[in-house]
Amino acid sequence: MSNAIKIKNLSFSYKNYDKIGSEYCDPIFTNANLSVEKGDHILIAGAPNGGKTTLSRILTKAIDKYIKGKLEGEILLLGKNLKEIQPWNLMNLLSIIEQNTSEQLISTSVIDEMAFPLESLGLDKKEIKSRISSSLKEWELEDKKDFNPQILSGGEKKRLLLAISYSIDPEIIIFDETFDELDESWKQYLKEKIKSSKKTIVVLQSRVNESFEGVFNKIFKINDKKLLEINETELFNENKIYKKFSVSKSNTSITGKNLLVEHKPNFYLKVPSFKLNKGEVVSLIGRNGSGKTTFARALCGLDNLSTGDFSISQEKLPLKVGYLFQNPDYQIFLPTVMDELSYPPNSKITKEEIENTCKKFNLDPNKNASLISYPERKRLQAAVYYQLNRDFYILDEIESSLDNETSYSLINTLRQKGAGILLITHEKEIQKWCNRTYFIENQTLKEVNYEI
Question: Could you tell me the pTM of the whole model?
Fold first, then answer.
């Protein structure tokens, strides 16, 4: 069989845009090699910030066209030198689902989003219409075709990008943390689709477990700035088991009864009863688009309830509840990490306290906040709210693009001062850490005895 991807002696360093230091940052890859044959289904595992997204950016030519750095080595796609492949020809060869969906979605409706790349390929209208119709049906987005992609749930955005990639029908598809934010049924569907596919598939993933067993014919790990081939046993043996979070006693809680939350267009969620105590970690689960984020926005005071009230008044909720959005870029907007951590209402915190926070969350205070990696921005987002010292935190799929170790550490750090945590998640492993579980089904939120 011939190679779909061939990487020889790849070395890469990002351009250093900070005011101090050398022209380039420390290398992400040094003399890395990779060989992927046509039809291979490969998994590339690695820690957050390990280089997975960087590799995807190199293969899609985002580096060095849009993102600057020092790139060395040879890269071949289907026998052609990547440097010589024109962008309009690359679309036929390769497609990607990026970890940060908001960076990839640009249109004002789902159907326009799907049509744009197909029109760019020069397909006729009949073929475009046929591909869009088929893909919308497969990924269950037919009733969302006129929606603005930005109001979709995180999992629905991932499904939209999957629908687009498969409608383009390239020879190679790259999945960058694509399983994150998908609910369990869609995770299983995607695994089966990969297993049965004749396409070349590259999956980049921080969090892996035994559910991936048998999906891939080759597994690689990014280690010491290189790509090393390993087997499933080696991969799964590295998984740690994390114990359930302990519960600290407290008389402080948020409660609500007979609540109704409405969200445009034409969506509502009924909440017969809800309670979150300080000192406990509670999970909120449900299918993509079921209303988890809708409820979270009401719980933190961003949206009003249509019926009922929480025990804490609407005006005081923002001072009691910290909400970490699915996408950290909705909450990070200042030049440096230090600026973010010292911004009001954190302005009274001392420089020493900020430096201690940076150590806790493994952050460099001098780094440009918009240029650090997506996982780093999630840690920065958590660090900002840690300093605010809220009684309660809503963590909306905090584990997305992070491994279990980092996710567990972030949750544990945020609850060190006795905070109550509402953890929105699709990950079975992470649900095991929680003390209680709420489940959304048929537009109703209810507490369940949920055995994983």
Answer: 0.93
